[in-house]
Amino acid sequence: MLKDTLLKFLKLDGLVDSLTGYVESRIELMKYEVKEDVARAISKVSILLLLAVFFIFFLLFASAAVAHKIGESLGSFAGYGIVAGFYLMLLLLIIVFREPISKNLEKKMKNTLMQK
């Protein structure tokens, strides 16, 4: 009787040890997966920020060139005023339509994230 109880206890103890080892392994695996996902996200955000910075520089210099060329045609600093007015108009359009734009971007982001 004692021998049977001891064998059952040892089998149960081995099962508990195996289950504990499995759970610990799963936790470690999840930690590595989270680290990989965070590293991937940080690298993608870094690339996007770098692209945004270069695009801003491009836009700035292209706008200055267009403004200068318009200024040569019209005289004085009128070209800079026209380019500034264009950007002001874009800003106002974005402010007026910010809700539909935001919902559209949110929908596209969700679709992109769901695909992965």
In summary, what is this structure?
The chain has 116 residues and is mainly alpha-helical. The protein has helices spanning 2-74, 78-96, 98-115. The chain has three helices and no strands.
Task: Give a description of the structure.
This protein is mainly α and 116 residues long. The protein has one domain. 95% of the residues lie in helices and 0% in strands. It is built from 3 helices and no strands. α1 packs antiparallel against α2. The two termini are 57 Å apart.
Instruction: Extract low-pLDDT stretches.
Output: none
Q: Distance between the terminal alpha carbons, to the nearest Å?
A: 57 Å
Mean pLDDT: 85
Structural class: mainly alpha
**Series of secondary-structure elements, N-terminal to C-terminal:** HHH
- This entry's quaternary arrangement is single chain
- Please outline the major beta sheet: none
Helix content: over 70%
* Whole-number total of structural domains: 1
Shape assignment: elongated
Please count the helical segments: 3
Number of strands: 0
